[in-house]
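Request: Not sure, any thoughts?
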Amino acid sequence: MSAMLEELAATAASLVRDGLVRGAGGNVSAREGDTMWISPSGFSFLDAGPDDYPGVSISSGEVIRGTRRPSSEVLMHLAVYRRRPEVNAVMHTHPPVTIALTAAGHDLRPMFADFHVYLGSNVPHIPYVTVTTPELAAAVEAVVGDPAVKGIVLRNHGVITVGTGIKEAYFRTLAVEEQAVIQHAALQVGTPTFLSAEECARLDQLGSEAYRRELLARMKPGRSSK
């Protein structure tokens, strides 16, 4: 069995324990050559083992491995891999505070270093598009072609994060919801202060943050980035 597939299933289960998906919600995938391993439709991440993840040809879109039906968001995942050859993992989750805050009209912007370090300053927010449709895949494809995009907020729906590896996409998902929690808390007690463009540029110049980014891109499950 593919080590990548085992890592993907284990990380998906972590998303449930982190409170970023419920029930059979969300979907994750990883690229291995022309094969996209993707979570099976209708399964909780806690119930789906590596053997349940079907393999889909990125070039043709056909199921080439396994017997389970791919996630209903398979078109969205394929769109990302076809536009971004450096991306090897995609995670789509339903973080509750992110959904609530952005559905209320707020945009997530960096308030602390990790959000910018992991996601940069360009996190597009896409207006609601009906879930699982070709129209949603097209909307994602239209913004993910920018190599600076590492995460996307889908208003009234959820979040997509990408990475050169599974752990990188996972940590980016955690950073999105952490930003939403902090931003929401700040709104309850005052006016949030966001990092300026100059402050974000200084973070980009720090060798320590460049090291963290590089380390995260090649980390395996169960290890910290700090």
Q: What stands out?
A: The helical segments are 3-17, 74-83, 96-103, 113-119, 134-144, 166-189, 197-205, 207-217. The longest strand covers residues 27-32. DSSP finds eight helices and eight strands in the chain.
